[in-house]
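Handout, section 3.2

Students often ask what a structure token actually looks like in practice. Rather than define it abstractly, here is a full record for Protein phosphatase 1 regulatory subunit 21. The first block is the sequence as you would receive it.
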Amino acid sequence: MSVSSVSLSSDANVRYQRLAQEYTKLRAQAKVLREGVIEERGKVDKLTKQSVFERSSSSSTTIRNYLFFFQKFLVFQEDLKSKEAVIRRLQSENESLTFRNDQLVRRVETFQFEPQSTPHSSKKTAATKAHPTPTNNPDSLARIELLEQELQRKLEQNEKLVSELAENERQHAVEMAEMSEKLAKEMRKLEDEVKRMRMRTTVNSTKENGKNEVELTKIEEKREEVEVIGSPEPPESQEEARIMVAEATKGTFSALNNVFTLLQQRCEIYPYDATMEPLPAHVVKLSSEYAQASRLFSGLVEITESIIADSVFEPDEQLPIITSKCRLISQHCQKMLKDLFSRMIGEENRVTWCTAALNKLNNQWESLVLNLFELFEKITENLENLTSSNQSETSSNLLDSLDKLDSLSSQLLECFQKRWIYEARFPTTTNRMRCVGNALEAALQMMSQETSKLAARTKRVKVMEEEMKRRAEEAKRMEEEIEKEVLEKKLREEAVALMSTPKIIAPPKPQTEDSYNPFFDENEEEDTSQEPLESADTTITSPEPTEDFNASRNSGISKNSSENHPPDHLHSEIRLLTSRNKELQKERDKLFVDNSLVKRKLEIALQSSEKEKNSDEKQKTDLDQIWEIGMERRDEWVQRVQKAEKALRFYEIEFELLLRHELASEEHLKQVLSELESVSQKNHRLEDELESVRRSYESQLGDLSEHLATLVKDREKEKESNKSRGSLKSFFNKS
């Protein structure tokens, strides 16, 4: 008995030395992590100072700064990922230390109760029974109970810290994904704004080439203005957003593939071990069904990989294939896995080492997995209904299902982490089971992250589709209004052109009809065509008014612009304009009759005075023509000035919008930097908490080692006293 106790104490001392060495390593690693976090904070501060210094530069320099900040952010993100890997490794080492600590506690308990469990020899006398052993000392027992209570409290605190650390890591991953998407969106906005500014500068340079080009560019600018009004923010590519959704879907399917593969390996190890005994029939069947589900998810992973490789998503061709695969998975889970899984959970609850808390966690795990199977079926139904007429309701239901999948995956991860804390302490837990359990926990964590990405990106695609529909409707409405105005102007100009064609008027005759008419109408084609041409001296009528001139100038441009559009958008407008043309023709006929009557009356009234004032009338007509030409040119210049003022106002509004976008992007950058600083502070606090827990473990291990040493010493003293008493008894018997 003494040899075994000495060997156990020596083994315990060796293991304590190893633990002390590992803790020193962990301390050194914690220092390195702290220095790395401080360096990253310094980098972030430098970046903020540079952003403040360069804020007063031009728009081009701000875009370069945003690119630089985005590259720095990517580097910082990679550093954070490496630090997170180090934290996870430290967490696994902490769990292994807690497991070893539990083993030491059990050994202490065996040391406590060993003297009571060993049978007394028949040769012991009543004198030896009268003296109690030192292990039954009430002070030592009370001290041991206090240490056990403290150890239990520390273990509970460790469990809480582990769960909080996992939740913080998951939230950190989600926030990093959202921030990366926001930064990508801002970069796209800035690139689109730069492209628009370049296009506008090129348009302004081409305006000086000619009048026709000026009018065409004005029409194009008007359409661009309509697009800007309909879309105040430049939208990102919808195809790119769909590819991002495909990437998140691939990650979700691969995570589910890993989960089912690890569940297959787990059912072959616990509660039945295939290396120790043959597995029951239902366990073998459950293992094969897990493998089948894993193969189905791997097929979905291949489909999504092909979509990402082609960079094109065609819903009509690829969505039915994905839906059929999802239907197979949901049917497989509901019909083949549901009953077998529930039976396996019942057998796990009947294990000897299963406590009431673990039983409760097992039941919670069962309900969550069954809810996951039902959620697979709902998602499949929503995917099948996407091709129906009511797509908005189906897409909203699909988004709700993805949100439920995100929350359910986080609940699965939390429940399994709590279960694994209990199951890792089992004395029958092997290294293979620990490896499978750790891998399953990592797979569930990856599934939680990927489902959160999938839900967020799917919501973004939905919002983009709604925005695109709204912008398309507004742009279509504005284009219809513009085309309607252009066609009305065109018809008005055609009517005016028919009425205002220049005619050659013969000089007046000596009879009663040869008097000069100053109110002569140029639009009467019938009357002027019938008058004989008696002299070679002809006079041309006065030019058209300014409105007719501008309308005729715009009619050719509107004709060219309307010919580029497809005819199916203009059927209703053409019908309206034909009716309007008929009405204008009727009004023109009426005007012809009225003009002919007025002409005859004026000719009769001015017949007597026409002969005397022929020379004066000719001079007056020349002056009137010059006056009208001058007025027309003045109106043209006035219209040009008005258009230039409108263009100036338009560019002022554009520059204001650009300044607003720039200020908004700077504020968003500040928010991102503040969020990064808060995340680094959280990581620093978690490292401090871990260090405090490690120090408490060191103190507890020191107390346990001292207690073990005192127990061993007391045991040796008891054995020496027993030997001395036995020698005295033999001496008295001989005497």
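Discussion prompt for tutorial groups: The CA atoms of residues 204 and 730 lie 123 Å apart. How would you have guessed this from the sequence alone?
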